[in-house]
Amino acid sequence: MELGKIIAFNLKRLRMERNLSQGQLAKEAGISKAMLSDIEKGGSNPTINTLWKIANGLNVPYTKLMDGIDDEATVVQRKDTIEQSGESSAYRVYCYFTTTPTRNFELFYCELDGHSSNKSIGHSQKSQEYIYVMNGELILDTQKGEYVLQEGDSLAFDSSISHTYINRQDTLLAFIVINYYPN
Questions:
Q1: CB-based contacts of 34: which residues, under 8 Å, 6+ apart?
Q2: Residue-range domains of the chain with CATH
Q3: What is the 3-state secondary structure (H, E, C) of 15-59?
Q4: Looking at the predicted structure, is the pLDDT value of residue 27 above 80?
Q5: 114 SS3 class
Q6: Fewer CB under 10 Å: which end of the chain, C or N?
């Protein structure tokens, strides 16, 4: 099933479970009711930040909107992941694992083109983000400071605050992100 249809199905299910109208959720998420309606119908491919806004409005992890059914053992091949982009195509994210009833984290492979950045809105309360840089230099700018990570470096931080991934180099930046949601 394509990602837009999965998001549409999960969005409607989660909204209905919470007895929210589209207007109420749109207000909570800070997006237009028309945009929410279009996403719920499977008629659009929302940006990462739009999905974060909806997830925060529903008070669920980001990947709850992309949940599928997991088998006991899951192999995810790169060719089977779906590319999502930020506000520009310079930032690309590939989701390998979503949260499930037995998994309270999500795992992403991320790419950021040279001389570009991507701002991420804060995630749900108490969420934590773990970053591992595979290639290049990542500058992470948060409300609490700026962190410079080289290849092989890691960082854990409170991801409920907004943060910006920055690549000031000429080369592609590749990194892994784990978003953790404590119970």
A1: none
A2: 3-66 (1.10.260.40), 78-180 (2.60.120.10)
A3: HHHCCCCHHHHHHHHCCCHHHHHHHHCCCCCCCHHHHHHHHHHHC
A4: yes
A5: coil
A6: C
Q: Contact at 8 Å (CB) between 6 and 66?
A: yes
Using CA atoms, how far apart are residues 16 and 28, in angstroms rounded to an integer?
15
What is the 3-state secondary structure of 79-148?
HHCCEEECCCCCEEEEEEECCECCECEEEEEEEECCCEEEEECCCCCCCEEEEEEEECCEEEEECCEEEE
- CA distances (Å), origin 21, targets 1, 33, 124: 26, 10, 21
Q: Which residues pair with 177 in a beta bridge?
A: 108, 131
pLDDT digits (tens, 9 = 90+) for 67-116: 765 556 778 899 988 888 888 899 999 999 888 766 789 999 999 999 99
User: Which residue blocks in 46-180 are alpha helix, DSSP H?
Assistant: 48-58
Paired tokens of 101: 């009833």
- Compute the distance between CA of residue 158 and CA of residue 56 in angstroms, rounded to an integer: 15
pLDDT of residue 171: 97
pLDDT for res 36: 94
Task: Decide: 154 and 131 in contact? Cβ < 8 Å.
Answer: yes
For the cut 60, the answer to whether the pLDDT of residue 44 exceeds it is yes
